[in-house]
Amino acid sequence: MLDFLRQPWPWYVAGPLIGLTVPALLLLGNKVLGISSALRHICAACVPAGIPFLTYNWRAEIWNLFFVLGITIGGFIGYRVLGHPDTAAISAETVQDLQAQMGLTDFSGLLPKELFALENLSNWKGWVFIVLGGFLVGFGTRYAGGCTSGHAISGLSNLQWVSLVAVIGFFVGGLFMTWVIYPLLF
Amino acid sequence: MKYIKYLVLGTLFGIILTKSEVISWFRIQEMFRFQSFHMYGIIGSAIVVGLLSIQLIKHYRLRSLSGEEIRIADKQYTHGTWLGGIIFGVGWAITGACPGPLFAQLGSGTAAAAILIVSALAGTWTYSALREKLPH
């Protein structure tokens, strides 16, 4: 059992469990799954600065912050307590591509150290990957009105065509970065 | 404490994200390079299960624990839906993380995640400040 828990869980176990979060939140408290809103609530709580979009009663949405705090604890339990293989079980082709194209050699951990080590903040890589990348995630999800959980999972589950537009956008941006910009950067 | 249930559910969600390696940058690169079914299987089966559950909830008009009628607000289209979607997609391919995984990475003790979250907050704040000037 512990061996099973330590291995990466297959998609057909993880996917349905993630899907069940949608009815669990609805049944527990009439809440819709969506994580990027937490970023807005944190901004509204910490630096509202008189901005109309950040001036609202964020306390009414505090469940969302508890959910996100839970995800953080879950990351600790999943990675540190249950244990985890040091390298993700990605395909051999991906390893080859990342080696050949981006010169990555270290495949351990969750993020490649060659791009995301904090020392990189003294060169362009750190600023692109850690600062700009994070900025685009926060800016884009709010502009789009949701992220992978809010649009792809909750939105598509509820047959919202708006969410389909958003998800197509997610992939257009992601594929553009992967296939057009990465080859230019490296 | 009425919020404990969300803390517990979030914890389970975080464990699933971590154990399925959804929070790994390498997995997201593998997805965008179409080199494995893993991420597509996860997102696809999550949607199917979510969809069936919502249909059941609507069909049987289930109520939440506190007895409220379950209502899911319709999402409204704006031009930001696709403009912002593309911007997020670029960020997703760079960081290998959506907002949920960022918090799970933080919990795993990955140092960069702390800065990524601060950058994401700066992005959300900047959007909020510029909102009136952006096409919607």
TrEMBL record, chain A:
How is this protein positioned relative to the membrane? Multi-pass membrane protein
**Major localization class:** membrane
- Which spans are transmembrane here? 12-29, 62-82, 126-144, 164-185
Stored InterPro entries: Sulf_transp_TsuA/YedE
Specify the signal sequence span: none
Query: What name appears for this protein in its UniProt entry?
Result: YeeE/YedE family protein
One GO cellular component term? plasma membrane
Q: Which keywords are on file for this protein?
A: Cell inner membrane, Cell membrane, Membrane, Transmembrane, Transmembrane helix, Transport
Q: Which family does it belong to?
A: Belongs to the TsuA/YedE (TC 9.B.102) family.
UniProtKB/TrEMBL annotation, chain B:
Q: Which residues cross the membrane?
A: 38-60, 81-104, 110-130
InterPro entries assigned = DUF6691 (IPR046513)
User: What keywords does the record list, in alphabetical order?
Assistant: Membrane, Transmembrane, Transmembrane helix
Q: Which Pfam families match?
A: DUF6691 (PF20398)
Transmembrane as UniProt keyword: yes
Which protein are we looking at? Answer: YeeE/YedE family protein
**What is the protein's species of origin?**
Hymenobacter sediminicola
